[in-house]
Amino acid sequence: MAHITASVYTSHVPAIGAALDLGKTQEPYWQPVFQGYEFSKQWMKDNTPDVIFLVYNDHATAFSLDMIPTFAIGTAASYQPADEGWGPRPVPVVQGHPELAAHIAQSVIQQDFDLTIVNKMDVDHGLTVPLSLMCGQPDVWPCPVIPFAVNVVQYPVPSGQRCFNLGKAIRKAVESYDEDLKVQIWGTGGMSHQLQGPRAGLINREFDNAFLDKLIHDPAAAAAIPHIDYVREAGSEGIELVMWLIARGAMNDVADPSASTRARHRFYHVPASNTAVGHLILENQYLCGTDL
Amino acid sequence: MSLDKPYLDVPGTTIFDAEQSRRGYHLNQFCMSLMQASNRERFKSDERAYLDEWAMSEEQKQAVLARDLNRCIAAGGNIYFLAKIGATDGKSFQQMAGSMTGMTEDEYRAMMVGGGRSVEGNRVIGEDGDAQAHRQPQGSAGNNNNKKKGS
Question: Looking at the partner chain, which of B11, B97, B102 has a beta carbon nearest the beta carbon of A195?
Fold first, then answer.
């Protein structure tokens, strides 16, 4: 059967993609950001999965105000990098995994979550920047990716609790797939930031680090955080953090109290453009190798 | 029974809810059109004519022409959509966000490098943080604009 081996959490700031694409990673402003992913790139090489299930938000790219799905799963064979107004990022085409995606869609809908099934869309920086941070700048991405887009643009957005429960359903779906596949689930977006209005530029280190602590040790408590706390404490776009709870809800220890996870890497830095950068790697412990 | 909108007392913040989305539909769809290079060229060659192709209000059009993102947001714009205008102009997200504070680009960047805006005093309307209405505009760019308007 397929199983989830690890979860990865990271911000997906567009300026990070631009810094990578324009060769600015060693500039003093950017060097500390990319330094935080050096471990991760090696970890990714050592732990390349068969499929990445990548939770992100579309930034008014594939979904305009014509249609606003709360949860959308990509079941296509491939996805082109989108032109977000600057022209497409010079990154590889993202290969999908239509069979596993369709299986997850069917299973998760049968578990009472309404997913929109997407057979054609472009993917924006929300999806490609995390791939770049974890994989560097290869000619092809190391494995297929299932895009899973969450509406965090138009309120009301799904609650943290609903996202956490959705993660549990995704885990069940993955484990009911017959083929023996190693799957990583990634939650992207966040951490604290506000992109709009006179309050733009808000950063709350205390909130962000408390969130990381809760996410690792007490994810149910993180899932209980109401929307208004994200807005008030972490800025209007800090709400993107609910997507991290989908990945966390899919980890084994959530379903099985006897299972445990191991935090392999934790990183936090301010700023990247308008935001704090947060990053975490959690492994399902019984599946991973020996300690470093 | 009224809808639950606990976010209305957050200073300097407009939450893009269903009401704002309805108000800003045509404005935001205009922004989406700028994802095509050919549309960006048409917009740049005659902004007013391009805007007139959209069922936007005059206030929305004027806000876009002035590149006043706070006015755009008040008129139903959403920053993820409005970012396409900035991209068309060759601006970064940081330049766009900073433009809404009254700070110069350098002032805003320095604030971010210094750790960003503090949440202290900026959680609820009526506190005394720098995002509160009585502290606007926050920086010298806003002050210059005010001087221009007054002269």
Answer: B97
Angle ∠(A159,B74,A228) on CA atoms, nearest 5: 25
Q: Which pLDDT band holds residue A157 (cuts at 50, 70, 90)?
A: very high
Q: What is the pLDDT of residues B87-127, one digit of tens each?
A: 999 999 899 999 999 999 999 999 999 999 999 999 999 99
| Cα–Cα distance, B40 to B37 (Å, whole number) | 5
- Cβ-Cβ contacts under 8 Å, B95 against chain A: none
Catalytic residue positions of A, numbered:
125, 193
Would the pTM of this model clear 0.90, i.e. be above it? Answer: yes
Best CA proximity match to B82, nearest among A200, A145, A94: A200
In A69-96, which positions are buried (b, 16+ CB within 10 angstroms) versus exposed (e)? Answer: bbbbbbbbeebebbbbbbeebebbebbb
Nearest-neighbour CA in chain B from A277: distance (Å): 12
Which 8-state DSSP code applies to residue B15?
A: -
Q: Is B72 on the interface with A (CB under 8 A)?
A: no
Give the count of beta carbons closer than 10 Å to the beta carbon of residue B95: 15
CA distances from A251 to A75, A165, B12, B43 (A): 22, 11, 37, 48
- State percent of chain B over pLDDT 90: 87
Side-chain half-sphere exposure of B82, counting CA atoms within 13 A: 32
